[in-house]
Specification:
Layout: H1 3-31, H2 37-47, H3 55-78, H4 82-103, H5 106-124, H6 133-137
Amino acid sequence: MGIEEDRDLDRSLARALLRLALGLNLLVHGLVRVPALGKFADGLTRAFSATIVPAPLAHVFALCLPFAEAAIGLLLILGLWQRMVLSAGTLLMIALVFGTALQQHWDILTQQMVYVLLYAALLTTRSWDRWSLDARRR
């Protein structure tokens, strides 16, 4: 194996492992909230009570969030429809960043920006994808 082939393999492997790690994080993040979904939604609604976000909107968002996280996570693990899934994940993070900024929780917002960076890195490196359902469909 030549140096260039070795680099390509390393890039593909690094991307696949990052995709799997982010996907697993999101899948579990969503699934653990489902058993206590009502409690989670009520807590998030209360947290937004001092912001401009209407309580019904915060509540509906909170009810949908775990399922969106789990779906995005599962699709990332599978590597299916990556452009759409990574874009959806980024848009979800933008919504979370907005809400976190309204609450002025800057420490949490910094953590969320790391997720945005990971989504951007995976989207930017789609051409390195070798090990996913998307790659098999090409």
